[in-house]
Write a structure and sequence with these properties.
The protein is α+β, with helices and mostly antiparallel strands. The strands form three sheets. Strands 1, 4, 7, 8, 11, 12 and 13 form a seven-stranded mixed sheet that branches. It has a five-stranded mixed sheet with strand order 6-5-14-9-10. A two-stranded antiparallel ribbon has the order 2-3. It contains five helices and 14 strands. The radius of gyration is 17 Å and the shape is globular. The protein has a single domain, classed as Sulfite Oxidase, Chain A, domain 2 (Alpha-Beta Complex), CATH 3.90.420.10. Pfam families: Oxidored_molyb (PF00174).
Amino acid sequence: MEPNETAPNADKLDRIIDARMKLKRRFEEAIQNTPSMTDEKPLGSGPPNRHGMPKIPKSQTVTKKWPVLDLGHHPNIPLDKWQLAIDGEVEQPVRLKWADFMALPQTEDVSDFHCVTTWSKLDVPWVGVRFADLAALVMPKETATHVMCYGFDGYSTNMALEEALKSDVLLVHTVEGEPLPLEHGGPVRMITPQLYAWKGSKWIKRIEFLAGNRLGFWEERGYSNTAYPWRNDRYS
């Protein structure tokens, strides 16, 4: 099952889809070979998810609640002040205001949220913008291999482009039909359903494309660089 899209501007959608397909062809093999899609001995239990992995990764406990975990600061950014910068190893860096962000194709998806602190919230309905569509706006250079995401709270986290470009990686503004709450990273946070959730920056303000890997906040403090839930890949 793929996320559902809506688009207010057909011409803009056509341009984004064309650029997205170029990225897909460039990274498709690497995406398909990532552990959360191809691991032959994944660790976990329950029925398979849509990628064939056990629904509940090893050592995770399902919760209906959504615990709040952060660095202790909840930046309250008014929508008329919010901006997202996308730069680094790209052909066309951009700075999006809220209206620009909301004018992009909006994607609805239902995915699971796995926290490294051993809880999982399953089947969460989201609305947001695909990371792949944001990448299509700026077109990563051939030198780009990773991204670093930054939050308004000073947080940072890294990931390989083949993970970031997956179709279920979104910058979300809506959860369960309501605006994303401030304590969970509103107005916009990134979600990474095939990695532990610390790889998705809350209160996101910048995405930097990198020519090579660089460690983020928790990665510098001993957390895994790769964060694969079905390999119990929590710490380095």
